[in-house]
Amino acid sequence: MKNNDIKKFLKLWMAGRFRRLDYLLITKLYTPFDPENILFEFNTMPFDESRRSAMYINKTAMIDFIPANCKQSDWSKGVDIERETDSMLATIVLERDQIHFCVWKDRFPKQVSTTPDYNGIPKRLREGMYIPHRTIPEL
């Protein structure tokens, strides 16, 4: 995939195509991407916390197939483009060997806690939210 292919994709997205797209990751094996060449033609905006969150929650089922060497992108380091037809916002994070493109269908997603709430387990058990594990005797 060449720089011009990325520009064609971005132009099509800006024109209203790919409306169901949430997230796109493109990796480059040999020739590195040229971010300045790709973004030159687009009206990009730097990250602004009043416009969108710095955290993107990828709900795509294919997320499990992303190679381990592709690190999670820092969305605050990307640039935003806005589609004029429907005001849909997307962020592009361009690196030499990969491009992350996400569409902000929810610009301020609810923060998800990554630390377990062990203190709340007894209360949830009383409320019937957890079913205790039962061992089944072998026959």
TrEMBL record:
Domain Sdz-33 F-box: start-end pairs = 2-25
Instruction: Determine the domain of life of the protein's source.
Output: Eukaryota
Q: What Pfam family does this protein match (any one)?
A: FBA_2
Segments crossing the lipid bilayer? none
Protein name as it appears in the record: Sdz-33 F-box domain-containing protein
Which species is this record about? Answer: Caenorhabditis remanei (Caenorhabditis vulgaris)
